[in-house]
Specification:
Elements (H helix, E strand, L loop, with lengths): L7 H27 L6 H29 L5 E2 H31 L3 H35 L6 E2 L9 H29 L9 H31 L6 H17 L1 H8 L1 H10 L2 H8 L18
Antiparallel strand pairs: 1-2
Helix pairs in contact: 1-2, 1-7, 2-3, 2-4, 3-4, 3-5, 3-6, 5-6, 6-7, 6-8, 8-9, 9-10
């Protein structure tokens, strides 16, 4: 019997964390669909990021299932590529939308933003979402059409991304993450000078910044591991790098629901209402905040 390629600890992580992420991000998508209070561009971007993360998480289940069902723990690269296309799409889709959300928050501090949202909100969101989708589709096209050997591989989500596609999109993700950091750095500088029309939105901004920077930290940590390995001339097999990278990036994806619930009063109240956390709180006698906030929420603002 061939020993497991993926250590047991990694297998537990790649079942537990993606499951938590799948549930949490699905809840965010669900409440955004249900609640009219979450119709602003920022809220929609948050839901779409969560949707992308849901697709992303399916890739880890594919990895674990294929690892345990195959006698060699590996499958053909072509089959792996076909199975991981949806997860790869979700990974790049949500990555670009994190940048879209950062740019959206930066633009929201300027007067022209309100005019754009009042007149062309649907077009604005559609354009931003389409760009993210095109970016992700190009990644999938690269996976399909870039020539590669059909050797047996451990079906990690990034395994089908080979050659120039791996290099291009690896660099693209790092550029996106740097731009996210720059956007929020500028945002934090400007927000101190701008009086926001809704103080309640600050909690959503804080949540979004925390989540974005957590994901950025995950990607940067991965690159740091690779760079240290190169400096010390340590040869690290790519699938080990991929598994280690997942510890940071996927943990960040799994925290979305918890960050919004902990930091954002608005999302907390909506979660309480639509997934019955509020009912549970009443059962145990926990104090619930007033719902008076809803009167002042304009569903057209970010």
């Amino acid at each position: 019997m061939i020993p497991d390629i993926i250590p047991t600890a990694y297998q537990v992580f790649y079942i537990l964390i993606p499951t938590i992420s799948l549930i949490g991000n699905s809840i965010i998508v669900y409440v955004t669909i249900r609640s009219r209070l979450l119709r602003g561009p920022c809220n929609i971007f948050i839901a779409l990021i969560s949707f992308g993360d849901v697709l992303h998480m399916t890739g880890h289940f594919i990895m674990i299932i294929s690892h345990n069902l195959s006698p060699t723990h590996k499958i053909g690269r072509n089959l792996c590529s076909d199975m991981q296309l949806l997860a790869i799409f979700g990974m790049f889709f949500s990555s670009w939308l994190l940048l879209s959300a950062a740019l959206d928050r930066l633009m929201s501090l300027h007067t022209f933003y309100k005019f754009v949202i009042l007149r062309h909100a649907k077009l604005y969101v559609t354009v931003q979402t389409s760009i993210a989708a095109i970016f992700a589709i190009i990644a999938d096209i690269g996976v399909i059409f870039v020539p590669h050997d059909n050797d047996e591989v451990l079906c990690v989500i990034t395994e089908p991304i080979q050659g120039v596609v791996y290099k291009f999109f690896g660099q693209s993700i790092m550029v996106i993450n740097i731009l996210i950091v720059i956007c929020y750095a500028i945002f934090m500088c400007f927000i101190k000078r701008v009086r926001m029309s809704q103080d309640s939105m600050k909690h959503i901004y804080k949540s979004l910044i925390v989540i974005s920077l957590t994901v950025v930290f995950g990607w940067f940590s991965t690159m740091a591991i690779v760079c240290v390995g190169d400096i010390l001339h340590i040869k690290i097999e790519r699938f080990h790098v991929n598994l280690l990278a997942g510890l940071f990036v996927n943990f960040a994806c799994a925290t979305n629901f918890f960050v919004y619930y902990a930091i954002s009063n608005e999302y907390r109240r909506i979660f309480d209402r639509y997934i019955f956390i509020g009912r549970f709180k009443r059962m145990i006698g926990a104090k619930e905040p007033s719902d008076a906030w809803t009167a002042g929420v304009d569903s057209r603002t970010g």
